[in-house]
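Key result, reporting period 2: structure in, sequence out.
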């Protein structure tokens, strides 16, 4: 599976659990950490955990390796490391506080959601 397929699977998993304001960033040439970042949020601890769990389960179901998942129990900021795709699932308040979109503002946005709905 290539990185763009993995990105689509993870974004769809987040969308299936009603993650809000899903943003996919192309980090190639900007960060050595990953090729893509997904940033989204939920409105409660339970929703944040459900989103993170779904991303992890779908990645495993499609044969991707989940390197690690951090922050699940606290549910303020859950990081799911899928290798070249890293998903950041925030609680709404934490997303505003950390503002990763501004931090990585020079990364181009990837319009994955419109591809999934067509």
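The corresponding designed sequence is given below.
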């Amino acid at each position: 599976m290539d990185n763009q397929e993995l990105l689509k699977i993870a974004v769809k998993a987040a969308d299936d659990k009603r993650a809000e304001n899903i943003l996919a960033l192309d980090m190639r040439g900007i960060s050595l950490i990953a090729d893509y970042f997904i940033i989204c949020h939920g409105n409660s601890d339970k929703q944040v955990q459900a989103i993170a769990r779904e991303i992890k389960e779908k990645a495993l179901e499609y044969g991707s390796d989940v390197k690690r998942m951090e922050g699940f129990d606290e549910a303020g900021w859950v990081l799911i490391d899928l290798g070249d795709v890293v998903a950041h699932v925030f609680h709404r308040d934490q997303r505003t506080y950390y503002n990763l979109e501004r931090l990585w503002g020079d990364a181009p946005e990837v319009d994955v959601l419109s591809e999934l709905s067509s």
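The mean pLDDT is 93. Helices lie at 3-16, 45-61, 92-98, 100-103, 112-117. This case is discussed further under Risks and Mitigation.
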